Amino acid sequence: MLPSFSYVRPETVKDTVKHASARGAALHAGGTDLIGCLREGIMDVDKVVSLSALADLYGIRETADDGLTIGALATITEVAENPLVRNKYPGLAQGASEVASPQLRNQGTLGGNLCQKPRCWYYRGEFHCLRKGGDMCYALAGEHQFHAVFGHDRICVITHPSDTAPVLAALGAKLRVAGPDGGKTIAVENLHVPPRDNVLTETVLGPGEVITRIDLPRPAANLKSSYRKVRARRSWDFALAGVALALEMDGDRVENSRVFLSGAAPIPWRSRSVENVIRGRRLDDKTIAEARAAIVENADPLPGNTYKLELFKGVIEEELSAMGRPE
């Protein structure tokens, strides 16, 4: 059953920020995560602030410098199917197309996908876990087969559920945020908060702060991007293991790279070990074999999710092999 709350639909960003700054306020974009959170009682909400009347938060447009700006209320389907996205940033189109089911992609928004709450069954259930202000992470000694193998520091082992966040981080995207103190820009790579910094929150956004758009830089002429996701059920589940690649090529060599993992950690996880292996090298069998080993460096799996290490090895091997083939 949903709790009682007031509902407002402001028509300006300024009024939205004002309403969202109130104690107990929650933003409503597509609502695909918010409604579940309210039903499951994991958020104390007195006021729901709809973003639907904010015309500036819709649409996908090229920028003057040949980049792209995506409104925070653009649906996941719009991102996946937009010709500009598919042409300039195929990895983002792939990532968006892998989100949930067609119905949820039609309703859910890009901004909401970046800010969704964890899907851990203890957090979503009736357990007063560490992330809800309790004194323990139940998954550490409980059911954790879908949980993190990196970046949890044995504090909280959620995995970040977004498929678009790793790709946007790999592509160097930035968020434009409106808030009580004015506007600011946040790199997608810096949006999410690891448990060691603050176990009670998922993003660096403060009260009243609203993502208005996502800006993508002009892609390098030699950029190759992709996203690969492994899940239990093709149409529905969150990533067990995934990899987002943004490689700048110099002929057949990798000049620069950004590699982010999904299904791996409480935040989109940057694999600098893979980046270091492939930088300046051809994607031949030797390089790919070294990258396959490097992707699990410093992993800290739990007894029930060690299988994920082999998934990550296989995913990076297949994706780098595909990237290395002549076009």
Describe what this molecule looks like in 3D:
Among the domains are: 55-115 and 159-216, Uridine Diphospho-n-acetylenolpyruvylglucosamine Reductase, domain 3, CATH 3.30.465; 223-324, CO dehydrogenase flavoprotein, C-terminal domain (Enolase-like, domain 1, 2-Layer Sandwich). 30% of the residues lie in helices and 20% in strands. The chain has helices at residues 13-20, 34-40, 76-81, 83-88, 90-97, 102-107, 110-115, 121-124, 138-141, 164-170, 272-278, 285-294, 307-324, and strands spanning 6-8, 25-28, 47-50, 60-62, 68-71, 174-179, 182-187, 210-216, 223-230, 241-250, 253-262, 269-270. Strand 6 and strand 7 form a beta hairpin. The longest helix has 18 residues, at 307-324. The protein starts with 5 loop residues before the first strand and ends with a helix.
Q: Could you name the key traits of this structure?
A:
327 residues; alpha+beta; Uridine Diphospho-n-acetylenolpyruvylglucosamine Reductase, domain 3; Enolase-like, domain 1; 5-stranded antiparallel sheet; 13 helices; 12 strands; globular
